[in-house]
UniProtKB/TrEMBL annotation:
<dbReference type="InterPro" id="IPR015421">
    <property type="entry name" value="PyrdxlP-dep_Trfase_major"/>
</dbReference>
<dbReference type="InterPro" id="IPR004838">
    <property type="entry name" value="NHTrfase_class1_PyrdxlP-BS"/>
</dbReference>
<dbReference type="Pfam" id="PF00155">
    <property type="entry name" value="Aminotran_1_2"/>
</dbReference>
<dbReference type="InterPro" id="IPR015424">
    <property type="entry name" value="PyrdxlP-dep_Trfase"/>
</dbReference>
<feature type="domain" description="Aminotransferase class I/classII large">
    <location>
        <begin position="24"/>
        <end position="336"/>
    </location>
</feature>
<keyword id="KW-0663">Pyridoxal phosphate</keyword>
<keyword id="KW-0808">Transferase</keyword>
<protein>
    <recommendedName>
        <fullName>Aminotransferase</fullName>
        <ecNumber>2.6.1.-</ecNumber>
    </recommendedName>
</protein>
<dbReference type="InterPro" id="IPR015422">
    <property type="entry name" value="PyrdxlP-dep_Trfase_small"/>
</dbReference>
<dbReference type="InterPro" id="IPR004839">
    <property type="entry name" value="Aminotransferase_I/II_large"/>
</dbReference>
<comment type="similarity">
    <text>Belongs to the class-I pyridoxal-phosphate-dependent aminotransferase family.</text>
</comment>
<dbReference type="InterPro" id="IPR050106">
    <property type="entry name" value="HistidinolP_aminotransfase"/>
</dbReference>
<keyword id="KW-0032">Aminotransferase</keyword>
<feature type="region of interest" description="Disordered">
    <location>
        <begin position="1"/>
        <end position="21"/>
    </location>
</feature>
Length: 351
């Protein structure tokens, strides 16, 4: 495969620097809270077994996820983060000449992972309100389409697809076209039940993609999973990098699944911080979109990179999409204060 035609992940990202050299990093959609104490205890214990290989099947985690939802264990695919699982799925489903339809802008890894699978990405612009243009996406599905990727809540805009819209879209696709619904941020959506698999049961060509990186706060451990038809899971497991989910990551993910009350409390906290930040950025005139994720999207167009530079000078790193907008992760109050001050300064300078 010729890799010259695509860059490494975020290799071309514009570097921004604060005068002091220190930045609050609100660019990666990480949760600002550390893992719960029970999860940290598991990690400390597992650190003493770092000399041992993990189970290449991550069987305990597969069993835990199967019981959590519940589904048949043959429907669960685990891997190193949701991006790693997505790569397994695309390698399984796609080859040279195949097409993958997705929204644009999107998670930066989609185009890269599509290219690695030797397929061709077919980006479809979001609507003016930052939502999937499902009608336009359906129109781009053709004879060469193997996969459609949807993301809800959407990264980077935070908009969410309704179950009825998803159902209508799915029933309109040709048989055999697989839809991968990326739900990395679903736990932050207070109006959705992350354990509701109704859509999955109703549509045999649907895959749900999930992550322990966001709500569970295990981004540094790299654990993701998909719930999919067993025949697809069996094929996708053959594309996995051996031992890609470490012992510590597997055990921490299992422990985090058990902390349901703690997770609900953490999500309530993040949603409260998100709503507060939304109000302050709105008051500053930056018109963020209402979000169901742990981040906000500001459609600043040509001013996106200027705002990222201004934020960096104030000590806050954000994610700029040149010519489109800026994504800001919900952080802690100190980071928010610095960002809000930068937002007001930016608005004043623009008037």
């Amino acid at each position: 495969m010729a890799t010259e035609r695509f860059p490494a992940y975020r290799d071309d990202e514009t570097p921004y620097a604060a005068p002091s050299g220190d930045l609050w990093d609100l660019s990666n959609n990480e949760i600002s809270l550390p893992p719960p104490p029970q999860v940290l205890s598991v990690l400390r214990s597992e650190s003493e077994r770092a000399h041992l290989y993990p189970d290449p099947r991550a069987g305990l985690l597969v069993d835990a996820l199967a019981g959590h939802f519940p589904v048949d264990r043959g429907s669960v695919l685990v891997g190193p983060g949701s991006a790693g699982v997505l790569q397994q799925l695309l390698l399984t489903l796609c080859g040279p000449g195949d097409e993958v339809v997705h929204a644009e802008p999107c998670f930066d890894a989609y185009p890269l992972l599509i290219a690695i699978s030797a397929a061709r990405g077919v980006p479809v612009p979001l609507t003016a309100t930052g939502e999937h243009d499902l009608r336009a996406m359906r129109a781009r599905v053709g004879a060469d389409t193997r996969v459609v990727i949807l993301c809800s809540p959407h990264n980077p805009t935070g908009t969410s697809l309704t179950p009825s819209d998803l159902h209508d879209f799915l029933v309109g696709l040709p048989p055999g076209v697989i839809t991968i619904l990326d739900q990395a941020y679903v736990e932050f959506d207070g109006e959705s039940d992350p354990r509701d698999l109704g859509l999955l049961h109703a549509h045999r060509d649907l895959v749900l993609l999930r992550s322990f990186s966001k709500a569970h706060g295990l981004a540094g451990l790299r654990v993701g999973y998909a719930i999919a038809p067993p025949a697809l899971v069996a094929r996708a497991r053959k594309t996995a990098i051996p031992f890609s989910v470490t012992r510590g990551a597997e055990r921490a993910a299992i422990a985090s699944l058990r902390e349901r009350d703690t997770l609900r409390q953490r999500m309530a906290y993040v949603r409260g911080q998100r709503d507060s930040l939304f109000k302050h950025l709105s008051d500053a005139g930056l018109a963020p979109l209402p979000s169901r994720g742990n981040f906000l999207w500001m459609p600043l167009g040509a001013g996106s990179e200027r705002f990222a530079e201004a934020s960096a000078r104030a000590g806050v790193k954000v994610r700029a999409y040149p010519g489109q907008g800026v994504r800001v992760t919900v952080g802690n109050e100190a980071a928010h204060r610095a960002l809000i001050a930068a937002a007001h300064d930016f608005s004043r300078a623009a008037t």
